[in-house]
Request: fold
Amino acid sequence: MRMLLLEDVSLYQLSFDGFSWKTGLRKEYRSYLRGKHGARRVEVDALGRIRREISSQDPILGNDLILSIDADLQKILFESMKEELEKNGLSRGAGVALDPRNGEILALVSFPSYDNNIFSDRNNSLYSLISRDAHQPLFNRVVSGKYPPASTIKPMLAVGALSEGVVSENTQIESKGGISLGSTFFGDWKVHGFTDIRRAIAVSSDVYFYSIGGGYGNVRGMGMDTMKKYENLFSFGEKTNIDLPGEASGLVPDPLWKEEIIGERWYIGNTYHASIGQGYMQSTPLQVAVATSIIANRGVRYDPKIVSHVRSSDGSILYKAENNKQVLPIEKKFFDIAGEGMRQTVTEGTAMMLNDLPIEVAGKTGTAEYGVEDKTHGWFTSFAPYRNPEIVLTILIESQENDGYHAVPITKKVYEDYFFQEE
Reply:
């Protein structure tokens, strides 16, 4: 693993305003980074010519900001996303990799990208063009982009439902393609038949999660308030405390929020939509990655950090990031069950493309509907190796065709190159 100095970010496609002097890491850590100017006092004659030096003071170098970014992985993630996007005529997306063992950010990509060197001249035409681009290259989608999390939220809700006793690991729920509530039909993306909770995660059964979220038949459901309690534990609806500016909180709605903001009462349909990560739900790619790391860690959460440490010019460590470890008050066996469902996603579910990798991967697909166009946002969040996770990888592709499937191929390419690249 080759960690980066802050000065190297433009070499590794870390291209968004989070690294500028005014608004980014440099501002966050400026007390460490700034050195002192040197000085020289001289005597001059009437024509301004130097006659003698009176005193001098050497400049003092600033300290080095060392990022947790893995240079090789950053390059792999950037190139894998760029290739998939260009091949399919797409332009917007986000990818983030973190170490679930400590919360360190290993790679961070937001598309479209740009050359960070444009900030050396704020008046040039290229900067003006980028700042007006409708695709918002300066926008850090990883920490600031808000999207429906879609089915990526299902493993976390499974943990909540198991913990609350709404279902057991053996509870079977049948999907015939959807459920009807009065005259309203809540569809599933296909008929799944009977599934237990592991297989419901693997095949992404909407009916199963409608039932454990809002209740249906003989399943009482958690209800929105209880769902929100668990979603907050997994970092949804709250900032993750990453050391980058502009982080969005996302949104986990509830009846009070809808009444105050929308001016309407909460309906059971709102709970159904929230139980599959749709409706008013909003999350950032970073939140999805942190939530995935909690499943990988069997209930341990770390604040994500992009700065590893600050090093002085003589090599001593002046600052080391603390990642604020938190153990969720939930039995570990429930995280195991959710993780097993995510592993089945790869072995027999919606991400079988990854099943021929030499490492075991666990993951969850998601397709987020939005707006009125026939477009979706495509998600895939994962961790590997399954039995001893060392990386969490979350990919989001914006505005793909309804039948598009791009996040999983990107993930496969990243894992292939990261774990099995030639020395």
User: Anything to note?
Assistant: The longest strand covers residues 391-401. The chain has a mean pLDDT of 88.
